[in-house]
Specification:
This protein has 346 residues and is mainly beta. The protein is 9% helix and 48% strand. The chain has helices spanning 3-14, 326-345, and strands at 16-29, 33-39, 45-50, 56-60, 66-70, 80-83, 89-92, 98-102, 108-112, 122-127, 133-137, 142-146, 152-156, 164-169, 175-179, 184-188, 194-198, 206-211, 217-221, 226-230, 236-240, 248-253, 259-263, 268-272, 278-282, 290-295, 301-305, 310-324.
Amino acid sequence: MNSEYKFIILLLLACLSISSTGQTLTEIPVDGLPAPITTGPDGALWFMMDNGSPDAIAKLTTSGVLTKFTLPGEVGTDGSIVTGPDGALWFSTSTDATVGRITTTGVMTVFNIPAGYPLGTTHGITAGPNGNLWFTELYANKIGEITPSGVITEFAIPTPGSLPNKITAGPDGALWFTESAANKIGRISTAGVFAEFPVPTSSSFPHWITTGSDGALWFTEAVGNKIGRITTTGVITEYGIPTTNSQPGDIITGPDGALWFVESGGNKVGRITNTGVISEFNIPGLNSYPVGITTGSDGAIWFTELDRLRIGRLSLVTERIPTLSDAGAFALVLALAVVVVYRLRL
C-alpha cells in the first residue's frame, strides 16, 4: 500500500469521535416511605421518610449505607429538604407548622411557625441569597424567612388563598415560588417585595420549581402535564410532556445542564433540555410513584420511589461508538486534496 494511502487511513482513525449515550438504573430498598431528597454537604443522600410513627430523616451514602434519625413529630410526603448556609440540612414537614434543622451528625432542632397548625403548615424550603432559609406556609398564604438561629419573619402573599407550594432561589437574587391554587409563579425579593405571573395554562397546578443552567426558572405543572419556563422578567414558555397524566413533580438542574424531573403518575424520570426537548426513562417496577429527585455527589440522578419503598439511581453511560466528527471530515478532505495535488505533479 502506498504511503500516502496509509497516511489517510491513519488520519481517519485518529479523527473518529465518541458518541451515543445510554443509561443504567439501579434501586436500593428502604424500610419507610421516602419522599423529598437532596444531597448533603457530606456527599450523602438525605431524605424525609414517613415510617408511620415515629418518622425519620434518613441518610444514604452513595454506596448504599442507610442511617435514620428519629423525628420528634411527623413528616408528610410533600415537604422539602435542602442544605442550608450553615452546613446543616433544613426541612419543611408538610404536615406540621414547623421548620426543622439537622446536622450531618444527626443533631436535630425544630422551630415552630407563629401561625401554628394547620395555617402555618410548611411545604417548600430553600437556602436564600442572604444567608437565611426561605419557606412557604401553604394555608397561611405566606412566605417565611428564618435565620440559622431560628428568628422567623413572615410576608403575606398579595393573592388570597394562593396555596404557596415550592420555592427556590433565583439567579436574580430573589426567591421564586409556585402558587398552586392561584395558578401563578411568585417572586419575592429579600426585602419582601412581591411580583406574580399567571401561568398560561389554566388550572395547571404549578408545583415544584428550580433555577436552570440557562438563567431561567423551570417549574412543573402537576395538572397541566407540562414543564414551564419563566424568565426573570416574567416571560413564560410551556412544554407538553409526552406521557399523558404524568403528574410531574420535583424538578432539578442535572450535571449535564438539562432539567430532570419525576413523573409521579407516569412512573418515569423525565429530562428536558434548555430548548425544550424531552426524554423519558421508565422505572422498572410498576406504580413506584417517584416523588423527590436530586443530583448525587457521584454525578448520578437519584430519586425516591414512595410506593415501592426504594431509592433509585439513574446514571448516564457513554458508549464507545466511533463516528466521524466534523473536524475529522475536514481533515480527511484536506488530506485527499494533498494526495491529488501530489499525484498531479508526478
